[in-house]
Amino acid sequence: MVLTVTDLACARGPAQVLAGVSFSLTRGEALILRGRNGAGKTTLLRTLAGLTPPIAGTIDHAEGAIAYAAHADGLKAQLSVAENLAFWASIFGTDTIAPAIDAFALAPLADRPAGELSAGQKRRLSLARLLVTGRPVWALDEPTVSLDTENTARFAAAVEAHLRGGGAAIIATHIDLGLPTARTLDISPFIAKGLPAGDPFADDPFLGASL
Ligand SMILES: Nc1ncnc2c1ncn2[C@@H]1O[C@H](COP(=O)(O)OP(=O)(O)OP(=O)(O)O)[C@@H](O)[C@H]1O
User: What ipTM describes this predicted complex?
Assistant: First the structure.
């Protein structure tokens, strides 16, 4: 196993969001996280990535196994596409950025500052960083947001190549990525009791004010 989660309870801020989550991932496996808006997919991924401590339960993996790609792209706006990847390659001790450039067709954009990219181009660069981490477990939060059909397919191909190479992935997404061997984990049964489950817009001040 590259990741084993046992009876995990997760919180976001002061509120418990999930309880009793258990699953495991072996090399070559992808797990798709499903659940309605606000169910706790991001919360689970953040907990797996070590950004939020678990309330209860255990997360077992080798040290430094998880590469987390959040909603936000987290790019260095002043650096070019190639410089962003080279920066992360130096952090993670990777030799080359060429496979990352190729996987997301970034060669024509290599010298452009990241801050001047379109939303989808930024997302491609953000996802390309996964390849330079060299980490076996990709934990991805809505990775295809802003991607067109062609680049969604590129992303799916990158995940499949990662799995073939002995990696694993856990991916929160509302779309069908077309990964034939992926398993699905619906986190709905693990939503902690007592969490408000009603209006999905209730916790959004902008939408709440405008409706
Ligand atoms: N920064 C925060 N502080 C407190 N509570 C939060 C915070 N962010 C999210 N929450 C709450 O935590 C719960 C789980 O949210 P989370 O983002 O994990 O859901 P999700 O399944 O990823 O949703 P989505 O599909 O909309 O991305 C929700 O009730 C949400 O309102």
Answer: 0.96
